[in-house]
Amino acid sequence: xxxxxxxxxxxxxxxxxxxxxxxxxxFLVVVATTYLxxxxxTFFIGRVVPIxxxxxxxxxxxxxxxxxxxxxxxxxxxxxxxxxxxxMKGVLSxxxxxxxxxxxxxxxxIRRVFPATMELATVGTIIGALIGIPLGVLAAVKRGSxxxxxxxxxxxxGYSVPIFWLGLLALLVFYAxxxxxxxxxxIDVVFEYTFTPVTGFFLLDAILNRDWAAFRDIVSHxxxxxxxxxxxxxxxxxxxxxxxxxxxxxxxxxxxARAKGLSETRIIWGHALRNAAVPLVTVIALSYAGLLEGSVxxxxxxAWPGLGLYITNSLQNADMNAVLGGTIVIGxxxxxxxxxxxxxxxxxxxxxxSR
Length: 355
Description:
Elements: H1 3-48, H2 53-58, H3 64-73, H4 80-92, H5 106-141, H6 146-160, H7 163-177, H8 202-208, H9 212-249, H10 252-259, H11 264-294, H12 296-301, H13 307-316, H14 320-348
Helix pairs in contact: 1-14, 5-6, 5-9, 5-11, 5-14, 6-9, 7-9, 8-9, 9-11, 11-14, 13-14
């Protein structure tokens, strides 16, 4: 074998390694740029809102020299670029400042309330996926039929009706009138001194503690707000599933499968949905991220002690450190979920790996 022939495999391997390195570098640049943009947006929001952070701390009756001293301590006399640099350093080190409302470090408050939001969004996404995917498949298979129209109307209502109105209506019917579920809150006060949280995810904690009475009470509290979030997730997932399935059912391999005599059940669920599942990963991930950032109204209506309610209460009390800290956390999680869905998409679909 000639020297040139021996060099060809090595050159191909080097090109592949260079391509992977370039892809990873581009990926990191996108992450850094996106996060920098998030920090810049939250920083300037904190500067343009008509709330003086100094007065929020010392009160509007504090002497002028106290106000000026606190302003200097907070670095608000510095140019904006220096303030942004200090702000970015603090955020990257996990320091979001101190909450005026609770007097705790904002990061400590977020660690306390964020598991409640994640638990609610997770259950809502599971409900939306378990119901939305079959509905989307059914609508695609029955395209143009009465069933298809019903599924599309369900999705349209999910997009159109305000969630706070549905939440109030659901509380009135299922809690106040029928008594099928527990009311606002995350757990009954009866379990306040007997239930011991471990992870912050109450459903998991109840299972770990084998406290089945608390588990039933937690399910009774979470089922209504999670179902509402699941309904909005269902609307998006079912619509996208229908679109993906219509695209797959029109492919040539479906015609070939029918020509071979395969059953419709196997063609739809074993072939078409299997190929449509790849982009559905991204859809479900985006739906989950959307529920994490969009659960503010739901948490407010149901008095759910999560990050959404924490941000709402902080905003009402001019606690901008808490508001901006919560916004950054939600934005960071949204970015992470988007990047994770992109990685999973590339892993599941080999065609995208070379892009």
